[in-house]
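Lab channel / #folding
Pinned by the channel admin:
"Please post every new chain as: sequence first, then the structure tokens as a reply. Keep commentary short and put observations after the output so the thread stays searchable."

First post following the new format, from NK:
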Amino acid sequence: MVYRGTLLALALLQAAPTQASRATDVIRWHGDGVQIYDCMRAGVGYAWTLRQPDALLTDAGGHVSGHHGAGPSWTATDGSRVVAHVLTIIPAPRPGAIPWLVLQAAKHDGCGELAGVSYVLRTETVGGVAPADGCSHDRAGATVSVPYQASYLFLQPAEGASSGAAPCRP
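Reply from TO:
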């Protein structure tokens, strides 16, 4: 576990050195759902292309805490939402698992748990990889949902630093 934490810390520091050095842990949620892929033309052939994730997010006690969907976005049960973009992709240590990600918040909606999040880390992934075959001209437009699980760690700036989000006013 120390190795994984060190790897993610280094990736975050490389992706955003100034802000990352001042980020602190906010929330850790478990995601359980599917990665949805569409069979689409890609270059001279066809390939499964990620449309969006669709996952239920739960806390350490197993209580529903939110939803992960297109954007990519994470919406808490309190209505707060963060949309982020990928900064760094780290190959998953587990074969057949989608990569680990370092994402930076690009947009916030609502007041609540996710209002001040500046970074999202996706780690400890299981499954979710697009099928290796089955996408062809005859199947163009087909959709497949691949089960996956992941841990999501939401970070916010340390005391006195800014997340870049507008102040939250209820």
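NK: The first strand starts at residue 23 and ends at 42.
TO: also worth noting, Residues 58 and 64 are 4 Å apart (CA to CA).
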